[in-house]
Specification:
By secondary structure, this protein is an alpha/beta fold. It is 43% helix and 16% strand. It contains nine helices and eight strands. It has an eight-stranded parallel beta sheet with strand order 7-6-5-4-3-2-1-8. Helix 3 packs parallel to helix 4 and helix 4 crosses helix 5. Keywords: Pyridoxal phosphate.
Length: 239
C-alpha cells in the first residue's frame, strides 16, 4: 500500500470510529449516516485511492476544480455532491457530473439547474441550503436561505423538471444566535427537516456536520456528514 493510501486509510478509520461512536451515543444505527468525503484542493489521484478504500460519495465546492476532477474519475462508481455556493452560470457544468447539489438557495438557481438538467437528461438531487445566520427573508453570509424561505424554495425545486427535492443542508454559522453552538444549530435544522417532510415525505436528506462538529450533527439526526480534512489531512494552501 502506498504511503498516501495508508494515510487515507488511517484517516477514514478515525472518521469511521467517530461516526460509529456518535451513532451509538445517539441510539442510531451506523448505516443511518452516510460519509461524504470532501476532496476540494486534493488531486484526482486521491479520489481514486479513496475509491479503492471503499469510499463511494465525494464532494467538491468549486466547479472549476470539480469538473475536471469528475471527468478524470468518470470510470469510477461514485456519487458526486456539489456543496459550495453556486453561480447560476456554472449550473450547466455542475449538472454534467453532480448527482446532488447541497447549496440551492434561490429561485434563479433552481431555474438554471432545471434547464441544465434538461439538457443533460439527468435528474439532479437538490437540497435547500438553510442559513441559520440569516434574517427573515434574507440569505446567509456563506449562502443559504433563511428558515422562513425554505418551504417556498422547496416547492420550486419539487415543481422544476429534472430536479428532485432531496432535503436540507446547513453549515454551522459563524454569526447570529447559533454561532459557536453547533448542537443547537443542527437541532434547528432537524426541526426544519421534520417540517419539510410533512409536505414532501421523500425529502429525507439532512446534510450537516464537518470534520470539527460531526458528532453534534449525528446526534441531531444528520443523514449525511461532509468530512474533508479529518480524512485527507490539512489542506494545501490555496494560491
Amino acid at each position: 500500500m502506498t504511503d498516501r493510501k495508508t494515510e487515507l486509510a488511517a484517516g477514514l478509520e478515525r472518521v469511521e470510529q467517530r461516526i460509529a461512536g456518535a451513532c451509538a451515543a445517539a441510539g442510531r444505527d451506523r448505516d443511518e449516516v452516510a460519509l461524504i468525503v470532501v476532496t476540494k484542493t486534493y488531486p484526482a489521484s486521491d479520489v481514486r485511492l479513496l475509491a479503492e478504500l471503499g469510499v463511494r460519495q465525494v464532494a467538491e465546492n468549486r466547479d472549476q476544480e470539480a469538473a475536471p476532477k469528475a471527468a478524470a474519475c468518470a470510470d469510477l462508481d461514485l456519487t458526486w455532491h456539489f456543496v459550495g455556493q453556486l453561480q447560476t452560470n456554472k449550473a450547466r457544468s455542475v449538472a454534467d457530473y453532480a448527482d446532488f447539489v447541497h447549496s440551492v438557495d434561490r429561485a434563479r438557481l433552481v431555474t438554471s439547474l432545471s434547464s441544465a438538467a434538461g439538457r443533460t437528461g439527468r435528474e439532479l438531487g437538490c437540497l435547500v441550503q438553510v442559513a441559520l445566520d440569516a434574517e427573515a427573508g434574507g440569505r446567509g453570509d456563506r449562502g443559504g436561505v433563511a428558515p422562513d424561505g425554505v418551504e417556498e424554495l422547496a416547492g420550486l425545486i419539487d415543481a422544476a423538471p429534472g430536479l428532485r427535492l432531496g432535503g436540507v443542508m446547513t453549515v454551522a454559522p459563524l454569526s447570529g444566535e447559533y454561532a459557536g453552538r453547533p448542537a443547537a444549530a443542527f437541532a434547528r435544522l432537524r426541526e426544519i427537516s421534520t417540517s419539510l417532510r410533512a409536505a414532501w415525505p421523500a425529502a429525507t436528506m439532512v446534510s450537516a456536520g464537518m470534520s470539527g462538529d460531526l458528532e453534534h450533527a449525528v446526534a441531531a439526526g444528520a443523514t449525511h456528514v461532509r468530512v474533508g480534512s479529518a480524512v485527507l489531512g490539512v489542506r494545501p494552501a490555496l494560491g
